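Quick one: structure for this chain?
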Amino acid sequence: MLEEEPEAVDVRIALAKELLAAGDPDAALRICEEGLSSSPGDPSLLHLKARSLWELGWNDLAADAAFEAVESGAGSDTQRFAIHLLDGAGRADESLEVARIWSNTEGQNPEAHYTYGKKLAEAGEEEKAIKAYEDALAADPNHANSLSVLALYSQSKGDKEKALSYFKRLLEIRPAAELQRGMLVELLARDGRVEEALSVIREGVGFTTQPELLSRYGVLAADFGDFDLAIVYLDSLIEQEPEDGYWYLLGTVKARKGDFDGAVKAFREVADKEFFDMAQANIYVSLSRSGKKEEGRAILDEIFSDIPEDPTPVYALAEFLSLDGEGEKGLALLEGYITAHGKPADPRFFFTKGTVLDSLGDWSGSIEAMREVLALEPDDPYALNYIAYTHSINGGDLVEAESMVRRALEAKPESGPFLDTLGWVLYKAGRYEEAREELTRAVALSPDDAVIVEHLGDVEVKLGNIDAAREAYEKSLKFDPENADVKGKLEELK
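Got it. Here's what it folds into:
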């Protein structure tokens, strides 16, 4: 047929397609070149020439032919192919131009607008890119890729509500979009929208598979108070990857829920040294809280006889023993650690030692332990405040106390408890007007703290403001109705 009609373009196109399908790109290229000599701008022949060159491995020449085909009016198949070839050849400007043509010629094709948006973004044309993504949504309100990009863009620009809207729309049409679900959860969590975050986490059950997300959702759900949901995620995580760290995490969540038997079971799955000592300490705590303290004695005895080198389980267990009315044992455990391993370079160890000594009435020893904290972390605000407050309530060094609490407030200027310490130090120094100023600020920041309000009442008494003192004491009793000292102070004002 070509011998009879050498300029029959349709025949050449059909033959070139057949040759390509038969795996003969050389012959197909020859047929296309012959046709283009008489019909140089034919978009179909140019497209087939590009495909032939591409199959032969001549990518740059293929990109040239594809770009020419697009300029000659080739349709979307050629436009997509041209973008692919031009991207592969590193010819970003021409790829962008093809995407622009595709977007203009197929105004109702969301993929065309989306691709153009991607190319604009790669070229640094941010505002134009966003317009292209919005055009994609205008063509298809459920275009998932555009929703995802616009959600991320809105988030980066601080437009939380718009980002939330895009993320939610995306998850409605693509519930298995794990990355975007995770971003939505984090956005809601940071904004304090707990119930919405929990709802999104619940909707992710069955869709979420990535271990880091399963772990994160388990932790967040527990932090938000939905322990059952947390356990669902952690069970899924362990089923997929039964690692010691995940068993430990499950144990902590079950303990927080109050399922101490379940917590013990999870902690006992931990064998790796990285988590084992902490798990053993938690087994003892869980058994104690479930009324099985004697059952845990063997574990406690073992910890005392072979004190772990890691100080974390030691001070965690010591803190629990102190809170459980066994401060002497807690202190013995801490001292045993120092005997066995020397002083650790861990400020929390010494902070715990300070609180344990304080609970035993050894306030000078408590201050020395807090100085050990400051030797490791000179600006630790909590140790600074602890020393200052301990001085103030035990007739200690008020000059050092004021200096230390002011340093603590440099780190946390809006801390109600720290301002209370400063106010109480000033009260003990007889500087009542200054004390009232600081305690008034402390009450404003911590209005439900019975002790802080009581302190304000004490200052008002010294200043002769009896009505204000009475009001403060009555308010303090609302938060601590059984406080006999405050009741006595109110009686004295009558």
